[in-house]
Design brief:
Elements: E1 3-7, E2 10-13, E3 18-25, E4 33-39, E5 46-51, E6 58-60, E7 68-73, E8 78-83, E9 92-99, E10 113-118
Parallel strand pairs: 2-10
Antiparallel strand pairs: 1-3, 3-8, 4-5, 4-9, 5-6, 7-8, 9-10
Length: 119
């Protein structure tokens, strides 16, 4: 079974940084694009960033470009999200999911990790 376990969230002040991690198991990690998505109160699921199978190509939402960096380590089956210059509007539950070059798979969502940014 696909298992994705996110960690690294917490409470941080505006302008601060956090590094999220996602440990993957139950599938061949390097066979998939991977994405970070988030769910904030009153808003739908939003794609944050995506990365191709070998970490050579990435894409990000305009709202996080220049602040967030997605990366992966296929030897550890782990996905990362380095978040800098955090803003209150980044407050959300963050999830990692599998995907393709065209889309992400919302059914993969695990328990997520809460990120709260105070003003």
């Amino acid at each position: 079974d696909v298992l994705l376990v996110e960690s690294g969230g917490g409470l941080v002040q505006s302008g601060g940084s956090l590094r999220l991690a996602c440990a993957a198991s139950g599938f061949v990690f390097s066979n998939y694009w991977m994405y970070w998505i988030r769910l904030a109160p009153g808003r739908g699921l939003e794609k944050v960033s995506g990365i191709d199978r070998f970490g050579q190509n990435t894409n990000s939402a305009d709202s996080v470009k220049g602040r967030f960096t997605i990366s992966r380590d296929n030897t550890k089956n782990t996905l990362y999200l380095q978040m800098n210059s955090l803003k209150p509007e980044d407050t959300a539950v963050y999830y990692c999911v599998r995907g393709s070059s065209a889309t992400w798979f919302p059914g993969d969502r695990g328990q997520g990790t809460q990120v709260t940014v105070s003003a």
